[in-house]
Design a protein that fits this description.
two-stranded antiparallel ribbon; 7-stranded mixed beta sheet; globular; alpha/beta; TIM Barrel
Length: about 210
């Protein structure tokens, strides 16, 4: 069962984290919207903190669109989470708003849903979001299938080029992890982004650093 938030479900997003720029979650340099809320809750998920449906904070789509449109030096935006397709109406509206301002930016999303399910059984809003994407990484994370792969945590997950925008570079690129980026926040805590090439990365990092977030 899918769930969306709010009476006007396309006006606000429930967000866990915003990343203005990274080079490890999609082609080129990208802004990342980490949405809050996931019902799949895959064992060993690297983003367990994004599972709670009532976590994170709400942000207006127009406000977020303006923020993303003002970023320099990015090639697109990536949606991860959490499960982006639980908030398909708001993300579709965000992409429409963003592309009016920055039509050159590409759109990528992760999803625990397989593309076949989205096309055959997804809601109209979910199919609408899918049509707006240039790249989709699909499938649930399966810990026993963890592998060192580009933008995927396990070998059952797939990359789909849904437009011609990045198809050539995906076809010629090496299929290995893009790695992770680690930074230190204002309170001297570690933050990281990316799809780790090894399982249990968050726990390993926390043990090594004596605590991270």
């Amino acid at each position: 069962m899918t769930r969306h938030w709010g009476a006007a479900e396309d006006s606000n997003l429930r967000v866990a984290r915003l990343i203005d720029r990274t080079g490890v979650l999609g082609p080129g340099e990208r802004a990342v919207v980490v949405v809050q809320g996931c019902h799949l809750r895959c064992a060993g998920c690297i983003a367990e903190a994004t599972h709670a449906l009532d976590g994170g904070e709400e942000i207006g789509v127009e406000e977020l669109g303006a923020r993303l449109a003002a970023l320099d030096g990015i090639d697109g935006v990536t949606f991860t989470g959490g499960e982006p397709f639980l908030q398909a109406p708001a993300l579709s509206r965000l992409l429409d708003r963003l592309r009016r301002a920055r039509p050159e930016l590409s759109a990528m999303s992760f999803s625990g849903y397989r593309i076949e399910w989205l096309r055959a059984k997804g809601s109209p809003a979910q199919r609408g979001l899918l049509r707006r994407l240039d790249v989709l990484v699909d499938g649930p994370y399966v810990r026993r299938l963890h592998a060192d792969l580009l933008w995927r945590g396990s070998s059952n997950q797939r990359i789909h080029a849904l437009s011609s925008r990045h198809r050539a570079e995906l076809e010629r690129g090496a299929d290995r992890s893009a790695g992770v980026e680690i930074s230190i926040d204002g309170e001297l805590g570690l933050e990281w982004v990316g799809v780790p090439p090894v399982p249990d990365y968050a726990a390993r990092l926390a043990a090594h650093a004596g605590g991270s977030r």
